[in-house]
Design brief:
By secondary structure, the protein is mostly helical. Helices cover about 85% and strands about 0% of the residues. It contains 6 helices and no strands. Helix 1 packs parallel to helix 6 and helix 3 packs across helix 6. The longest helix has 29 residues. The chain is globular.
Length: about 110
C-alpha cells in the first residue's frame, strides 16, 4: 500500500481507538479520586509531556531491544511499522482526549 493511501485510515482508526479508550478514562478521572484515577493521571501526564516522535521511536525501536518482547506473541505485530504507529497514535490521542473529556465532565454542574 502506498504511504499516502495509508495515512488517512491510520489517522481515523487511531483517533477512533483513542476515543474508545479515553471515554472511560476521562469519566474515571472526573468522578473518582482513587488509585485508578492516579494511575490514569500518570499515564496521561507521561504521554502528554513526551513528543509523539519519541513515543513512536520507543515503540518501534525500543521494545524490540527486549528479548522477552521478541519471543512473545505480540512480536509479529510490533515488528510492523504500521501497527506500531497505530498503537502509538492511539495512545497519544487517548491521553489528550482523556483530558478533554475530564474537563468537559467537570465543567458541567
Amino acid at each position: 500500500m502506498e504511504h499516502r493511501a495509508c495515512a488517512i485510515p491510520l489517522t481515523l482508526l487511531s483517533v477512533a481507538i483513542g476515543f474508545c479508550i479515553a471515554l472511560p478514562f476521562g469519566l474515571i478521572r472526573a468522578r473518582w479520586n482513587g488509585i485508578g484515577s492516579r494511575q490514569i493521571n500518570a499515564y496521561v501526564y507521561a504521554f502528554r509531556i513526551t513528543p509523539l516522535l519519541v513515543q513512536l521511536y520507543m515503540t518501534y525501536h525500543g521494545l524490540s531491544q527486549f528479548e522477552a518482547v521478541r519471543q512473545s506473541f505480540v512480536w509479529p505485530i510490533l515488528r510492523d511499522v504500521w501497527w506500531c504507529a497505530l498503537i502509538t497514535f492511539s495512545l497519544n490521542s487517548d491521553a489528550y482526549a482523556t483530558e478533554i473529556i475530564r474537563g468537559a465532565v467537570q465543567s458541567v454542574p
